[in-house]
Amino acid sequence: MLDIDGVLIDGRPEDGAAWHTDLEADLGVSVQALQDTFFGPFWQDIVIGKTEMMPRLEAALAMIDAPVSASALRDYWYESDSRIVPEVADWARAIRAEGVQVFLCSNQEVGRAYYLLNRLALGEFVSGIVYSGAIGAAKPDPVFFRRAAQGFPAATPLLIDDVSENVEGARQAGWRAIHYRDPSDLPAADDPIWGPIPR
Fold first, then answer.
1. Backbone torsion region of residue 28, taken as left when φ is above 0, otherwise alpha when ψ lies between -120 and 50, otherwise beta
2. Which of the 8 DSSP states describes residue 179?
3. Helix ranges, 64-117 (H)
4. What residues form DSSP beta bridges with 177?
5. 124-148, pLDDT tens digit by residue?
6. Are 108 and 118 in contact (CB under 8 A)?
7. Radius of gyration (Cα) for the chain, nearest Å?
8. Which pTM does this prediction carry?
């Protein structure tokens, strides 16, 4: 169960900086205004699929009189937050070749989950994706881990995540978990943390 942002994906393709680093210069949208009108009040509901993203984004941009459409900002965001960490991608391919099922496991809204899996082609080297927008709960909520594990009744999932609260939540839910800081934290196929490898 491989986390996406901060593990497999790390910022802008050109330099790894946060996707919104040049948002105001490029699109004329204030990061703080977007936080105040969109991410702050609505993101937690969006990321668990409780409300749709685009109507909320459209309303927020109208509220701050932004000179850009919601679809243009969404596309800028997705494309600017898409640098694949090559060492992690190579690890995922290699560990799958050893017979391990690798799933993306992330707090994502449905649009970006689709973009990452299909447009960015992350689906080429993982077996699938488990994400909050489909599950209806977000890491580290125990409900997320319980619902995610229902798809793998014969296995004990291993979460690799850069957020310590998610790692602790996974462990409390009975999962194995690794706190990721850099690619050296990724376990080899013979690492004891796997236990019996589900094949």
1. left
2. E
3. 70-80, 86-97, 110-114
4. 159
5. 889 899 999 999 999 999 999 999 9
6. no
7. 18
8. 0.93
